[in-house]
Every structure is written in C-alpha cells, then in structure tokens.
C-alpha cells in the first residue's frame, strides 16, 4: 500500500482516505476521487475510460486525469469529487407520490447519461445507487463504469447486491447490452419508491431465478398510472422489447418532467443572477462610500492619509498572510491606526460580498447552464422522432428497424389519451422552430462557459489580490472613464457577465415558451405538491 500511496504523492495528490480500489485525495486545494484499476485484467475498460476523457456530459462524472503505474499494474482514474453524496444515501429517505417528480427527475438524468454512453458504444455494466452521485448543486452524475464484470454470474467479483441489478439476459444468454443497463434503471426506480431492493434472496442461487423468471414487483397505486406503466415497460424480460434510453426520454411523463426541470432551473438561475448583480451593487456602494469619506477619519482612522497605506496587504485577501508595510516610511506610532483602517475597508467589502457565495453562484451557473440546453434538446429530439413516426418519415438508415419505430410511437402514446392525441399535440407544436431554438441554446451556452470562466478568474483576482493599494486607486479615475479600482474592475466584470448570462437565460426561456402544451394537469399537480 505504501508504494501505491507514493505513486499518488509523486503525482501531487494528498491522500485523505484510501482503500484497495479507491482513494479520496486533494490537489491544489481541490478534492478528487480516484479509482484504482488493474491494468492486466481491464484493458478494454481502460480503453473505454480513455475515450470518456475526451468527452463531457452534465450527467456523467467528469474525468479530470489518468495515469498508470506499470510496475504496480495499476491504472489511476481521477474524477471530480461529488459533494452531494450518492443515490444510495437518498434511497434511505422515504418517499410518497408527492415526490414522484423528484424520483422521475433522477431517472431522466440517468437515462440521458445512458443515452450519451450508448451512442458512443459504451456500456455502464454496473448501474446501481452506489455508483450514482450528486454534485454540490444537486446534478446527478454516473460513475463506476465497468467496475463489476457483468458477465461474471458466479458473483466472484460482484456480490449479491450488485447481482440484484443485473438483467435476465445476463444469466440466460451470458450477454450484456444497452438494454441491460435499462433494466438496472427499473431496479433503481423501484428502490427509490419503496426503499427496498427489487430482487433479493438469502443466496445467489435463489436470487438469480427471481430475476430470470419473475414475477416482477410493481408499484402501489399511490403512484400515477403513467409512472407505474413506465416501470412495467422497463421490466420486460425480452431485451428486444425493452425500451431504449431514447424511448424512455420520449415518454410523455418524462417529456413533461424535462419541461418542468428546464423551466424551474432557468427560474432558479434567474434568481441567482439577481444575487450576483446585487453583489456588484453592494461593492459599488463600498467604492462610493470610501470615496465620499475621502478615506480619512472614521473610514481609515490613521495619520498620513492615503499614501501611508500603499503597500499594506489586507489579510483576508492574501489567504491569511500577515499585514506588511513596505517602502512608505510608516512609523510605529501609526501602525495600529493602519491596521484598524485596513480592517475597516476589509469589513466593508466582506459585508458586501462573500467569496464562497460568489464562487458558488458562478460554479452553479456553469454546471446548470450546460445541463438545461441538453434537456431542451432532448425534448426537441423526442418531438421530432414522434413527428417522423406520425408522418411515416423513417430515416433510410432506420428502415430495417421499422418495427422498433412503430413500437416507439405506440409506447410514447401512453398516458395522454392515446397515440392519436399525442400526435395531434405534436402537429400543433412548431417542431422545426423548437429544434432550431434548442440548437441555438446549446451554442449560446457554450459561449457562456467562457464568460463564466472569465468571471471566476476575475473573482479569484479580486478576492486574493485586493490589497491596500485599492485605497489609493479608489480615488483615481482615468480620463477615458476607466478605473484602477480593484473593486470597480470586479464590479464591471460582474455587470458584463450578467448581461451575457441574461441573454443565455432569455434564449432558454424562448424555447421553453414554445412547449407549454407539455404543461398539463399532471405537471401542475407536481407543482402543487411541492
């Protein structure tokens, strides 16, 4: 174990917790999660993980780094550390029909992640609550890819609990495919609703027949019929008849969920943007107050005026460093007054902005502004597919799969008065307009990522580098109207970013406004339950 630890340390990671297969580490003040994978027995898995490194998805845990220790035969996979805990911890909380939207929201995010993986010809193979995590801001992320070899039915590597999530064909045909991941989604959905494993037994020998032969459990009547139908649809023993991730996402109940998720998240981001703007307003008042007070008397409480403070570093903005006076000839007699003056300005800034709060808003924006356009695009994609089914417009490369398209159209028609009614609603919608706007929303969100990165850097500079020279710069304004004030520079950065972020939110709202037909009585009932 000592050698393994030294490998991580040589790479700059400080170990907080470690086991034979995992480690929680920190580097440069950030926390990460590391998986240790045997190279010799997981060559295919490592190749897939390397593929994932080059891609990103809001609901797939991002891979930050990877490296190998050939001598120890270990591949280290470094991923983000999700502070929100695992889905296994959420399952312990009892839920009723009033939390149906919450459960469905998580299932939708899981299916979006699976669709992303399956389109890249990747399988999860170990989909269970312990491998699903939440970020600090509640976004669900899949992890644990291939950690258990799903074809290993003797449980030598998995254990009974992992086997409980495996699909029938894994045992009957010794195969694992995309639909096998979907079966696991049903197991997770059931467990979220009941706090019980869908399939359990005292031994593996007794457990496997239950999965193969059934009967499969169902949800009680307290859940909506559509919700119960979704589970029974997933738990189809024949994988060919089981829905794919895209079919689940095209189900009316999940479309409405995506609509509500998009709408409520945009509303929340609008509120957060207001908070960020209020920080700029408060800091501007600090600047004005300091200027009006001429930074003398009660504001600074020190002799010698502004020039006496040049070079005095404010401790809170230098990560706890001591106050330092350099090259300004400040005598011992005024040192106490200088410290008091610095503290006064520090308090004024601290009262107007909280570093963690500001950085939290920026991080949350960055995270959710990437997720919302994908949700909107998913709605658009499903509507286009349903529309093509209605018109009989099956793509040439899918004509050999016509039966599946017909099944898709039949399946998604459940719960809205039948397929005819759903197609009527689709015809009412301007699908082409929604698709164009959803695509634009994705492009605009990509630009916003750069805006947020710039704002985060600006915040970092402001909170770390701000020092007593600010007191001098506060009174200086260039002839062209620009300012040397660190406070006003940051204020201007916030205002520029807020304008651009508002444009992004407005783009999202335009798409959302074109799909109100998804807001039916069930969606309104979800809102009432909250």
From TrEMBL:
Residues 1-254 form the Protein kinase domain. SUPFAM superfamilies: Protein kinase-like (PK-like) (SSF56112). It catalyses: L-threonyl-[protein] + ATP = O-phospho-L-threonyl-[protein] + ADP + H(+); L-seryl-[protein] + ATP = O-phospho-L-seryl-[protein] + ADP + H(+). It comes from the Eukaryota. This is non-specific serine/threonine protein kinase. The chain crosses the membrane at residues 447-466. Keywords: ATP-binding, Kinase, Membrane, Nucleotide-binding, Serine/threonine-protein kinase, Transferase, Transmembrane, Transmembrane helix. GO terms for molecular function: ATP binding; lipid binding; protein serine/threonine kinase activity. It is an enzyme of class 2 (transferase). GO terms for cellular component: extracellular region. GO terms for biological process: lipid transport; lipoprotein metabolic process. Belongs to the apolipoprotein L family. Its EC number is 2.7.11.1. It comes from Sparus aurata (Gilthead sea bream).
């Amino acid at each position: 174990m000592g050698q393994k630890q030294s490998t991580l340390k040589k790479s700059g990671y400080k170990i907080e917790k470690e086991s034979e297969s995992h480690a929680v580490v920190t580097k440069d003040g950030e926390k990460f999660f590391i998986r240790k994978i045997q190279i010799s027995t997981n060559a295919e898995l490592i190749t897939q993980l390397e593929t994932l490194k080059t891609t990103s998805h809001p609901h797939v845990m991002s891979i930050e780094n990877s490296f190998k220790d050939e001598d120890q035969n270990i591949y280290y996979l470094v991923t983000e550390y999700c502070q929100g805990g695992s889905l296994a911890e959420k399952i312990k909380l009892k839920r009723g029909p009033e939390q149906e939207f919450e459960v469905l929201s998580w299932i939708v995010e899981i299916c979006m992640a699976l669709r992303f993986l399956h389109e890249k010809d990747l399988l999860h193979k170990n989909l269970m609550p312990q491998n699903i995590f939440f970020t600090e801001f509640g976004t669900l992320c899949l992890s644990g890819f291939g950690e258990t070899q799903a074809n290993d039915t003797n449980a030598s590597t998995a254990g009974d609990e992992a086997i409980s999530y495996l699909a029938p064909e894994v045992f009957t045909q010794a195969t694992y495919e995309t639909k096998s991941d979907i079966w696991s989604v049903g197991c997770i959905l059931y467990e979220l609703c009941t706090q019980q494993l869908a399939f359990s037994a005292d031994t593996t020998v007794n457990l496997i027949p239950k999965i193969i032969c059934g009967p499969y459990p169902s949800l009680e009547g307290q859940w909506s019929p559509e919700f119960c139908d979704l589970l029974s649809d997933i738990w189809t023993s024949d994988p060919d008849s089981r829905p794919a991730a895209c079919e689940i996402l095209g189900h009316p109940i999940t479309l409405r969920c995506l609509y509500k998720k998009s709408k409520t998240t945009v509303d929340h981001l609008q509120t957060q943007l207001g908070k960020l703007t209020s920080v700029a307003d408060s800091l501007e008042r600090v600047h004005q107050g300091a200027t009006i007070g001429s930074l003398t008397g009660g504001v600074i409480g020190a002799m010698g005026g502004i020039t006496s403070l040049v070079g005095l570093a404010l401790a809170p903005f230098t990560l706890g460093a001591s106050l330092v006076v350099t090259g300004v000839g400040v005598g011992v007699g005024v040192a106490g007054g200088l410290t008091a003056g610095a503290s006064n300005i520090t308090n004024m800034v601290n009262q107007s902005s909280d570093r963690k709060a500001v950085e939290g808003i920026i991080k949350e924006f960055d995270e959710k502004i990437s997720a919302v356009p994908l949700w909107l695009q998913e709605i658009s994609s499903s509507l286009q597919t349903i529309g093509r089914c209605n018109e009989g417009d099956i793509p040439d490369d899918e004509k050999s799969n016509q039966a599946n398209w017909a099944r898709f159209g039949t399946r998604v028609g459940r719960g809205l008065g039948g397929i005819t009614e759903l197609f009527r609603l689709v015809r009412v919608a301007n699908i082409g307009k929604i698709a164009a706007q959803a695509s634009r929303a994705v492009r605009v969100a990509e630009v916003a990522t750069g805006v947020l990165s710039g704002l985060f850097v600006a915040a970092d500079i402001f909170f770390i580098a701000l020092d007593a020279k600010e007191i001098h710069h506060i009174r200086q304004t260039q002839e062209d109207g620009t300012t040397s004030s660190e406070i006003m520079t940051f204020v201007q950065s916030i205002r520029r970013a807020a304008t651009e972020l508002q444009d992004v939110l407005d783009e999202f709202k335009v798409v959302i406004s074109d799909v109100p037909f998804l807001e039916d009585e069930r969606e309104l009932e979800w809102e009432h339950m909250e």
